[in-house]
Fold TonB-dependent receptor.
Amino acid sequence: MNKLLFTLSLTFIASTSAIAAEGRRSAIEEVVVTATKRDGNLQDTTIAISAMGAEQLEFRDVSSLSDMQNSVPNLQYGEIGGVPFIAVRGIGFNLPLGIGEPGVAVHVDNVALPRLGSMSTAGMDMRQIEVLRGPQGTVYGRNATGGAANFVSTPPTQEFDAKITIGAGSEGRQTVEGYLSGPLTDRFRGRFFYMKDEFDGFGINEFNGDKVGGTATEGFRAALSLDLSDSLIIDLNMYKRTDTGSDPTASPVNIEELTTVLGTPFLKPGVGVSGDPNNINDDRTPFTGKETELAILTLSWGAENFDLKSISAKIHHKTDQYYSVDATNYFIIDAIRDEDSDTFSQEFDLSGSLFDASVDWLLGAFYFQDKGNTNFTPLLNADELSGTATTPTGGVLVLDALLEDQINIAKAVFSEVSWHFHEEWKFLVGARYSEETKKALQTFNAIIDSSNVPAALLPVLNTVVSPVAGSVISDSCSEFSTKVGFTSFDPKLELSWQPNDEILVYVQNQRGFKAGGISSTECGESYIPEKVNSSEVGLKAQFFDNQLTINSAIFHYEYTDYQVLEYNGIGLRVISAPKASGVGVESEIMYAPKNWLNIDLALSYLDAKYDEFIDEDGFENPNFFTDVAEPQDLSGMPLNRAPKYTGNLGLNLFIPFDSRFVNESQIRLEAYTTDSVAFTQFSYKDSDRQEGYSLYNAYFGLSMLDSKLNVRAFVKNITNKDYIIGVFTADIIHLTSQIHADPRSYGLQLSYQFD
């Protein structure tokens, strides 16, 4: 009966958003999105989608999805060590290592980014950012169980256009960026963009006085567009970006529980942080360096009865990282993480209409190949770990968790066909068939002279690597070949009703698929795919001559083998919760009652939880030698990054000036609130969750000289609220560390546009 009532209730509402509507008029402007791989009006697109255009991206200092979290329902963003973790409607993933896959697919100009560490390129020179909520298994396919994010770059212009922007802000932030765009010949256009952003960081390493949390970023984009004929266009986009910073700036929160591997208290003084929560007290100032190069070649051919698009891309990404796992001012466990990958992808999209446009169709083929190496090397100080040596011996255990010659190959074919069987009704059927294989040479070894290791610690080493051969611990595995393969068929059914241009109602059912993979710290171990089945019904409505837009959604998810990250002593592994589910409601409202006032409201409710899941918490083991932790039934516990409710209210004021020098000013006041957020499956512990909190932001803009000269200022997190955005755990020493969000920040930008 409950399922029947829920199914009936699904006919009530559904969702999209018009964040990108930047109208200064009382009618909210039309927003064009690319969510279906074809341009279309946001209000006519039967997907729960939010979009933010270039003007608001610049005005609100948005360069990544982290800045959109406060505006998009059921979007959660966090970082650990410079690697972003994105969740939509409770679906995401927290694995920064190896060939683990995200749950939200991120695309730049229709090219899927294989690793979230390369996502920084997506923040440069964007025309629009689109966030699609819910599984996108047909058109987007792999890794879109939670949704997809599209970063759409600004194309070269037909007329000359140039702009330069400089900025300054809190904690030494300095920015400069600019672009030059226009025709090179009658049929050839170009656009060149450059940016540099430096920031000292909000925290201090109390151990040595270093500033922490800062970044130094430099990037450029070159875009060329050539009209070979009236119907054939070639576009080339090239990106390069480097990011360096002192991440992760993590602080331990349960110092009183810190122990040696033998379970004895770790009683050394001065381990914790005093004062600012953004400070650290660490013997190792962390470092993260990333470099990403991306090249995209797009061919678009528009024939009389069909359109053909070819999208070819190459990506090179490199990450180097060194940080302290224990996050204390003693050398207990450090870690080195190196990642290097080369990716090639090719997609063909063929679309058209039949029978006087009563049938629209899309056919596609996709190929993806990612090659790379991942090395995760923990460095363990034997003396500190055991706590048994009265005189330091200098015994350091070096573990190598290495995935060499990783090859991930994905192939897919997909199709969507929609039939307008009545002028008000449309039926859509879609499907995608995917094949994916992953293979790697896996090495997991330890090297140490056991004569320098306290005798009590040797059993620990034998639980990790074995056997002990003489005085050197032998390889646990070396270049061990592991290969896994997966296939999936993911259908989609949808019925929509559009009685007029202002009302659209749709009901849909679709499946999403995320492949399994290979463990980075367990020889020969792999994990299985995750699948989700989604039912959703929606309404998109505009009233009062488009002054009021109401977009809402209600949805129900059922997950099979939901992938969960588990800390396993020294390493990490992926396990599966057999069943999980989610029920939610989203509503976004935009109201423009006056030329000078726009109001936007975004609300969400989400009940996403484990239905069947048994796991044990390594914190319950008294020491590393004993495994007495009782398996726990985690049924009913919330999924990671799935708060029960969130809400955002924005007020936009536009004040015109009757002056040749000053044209207009804009003020935006913003409030965001959220319920508690879980970061691990054991979120009943205070250390593994963030309690509910509220944030307030303010933005100001002044347009002058016919909008050529613009001044913008912002203050984010006005009340200086302290909250966390990530957690990582070291079970081996009973320690949990948290990553804090930025405190209050402010900035001022000045830009001038040439034409």
In short: Helices lie at 2-9, 54-59, 382-386, 458-464.
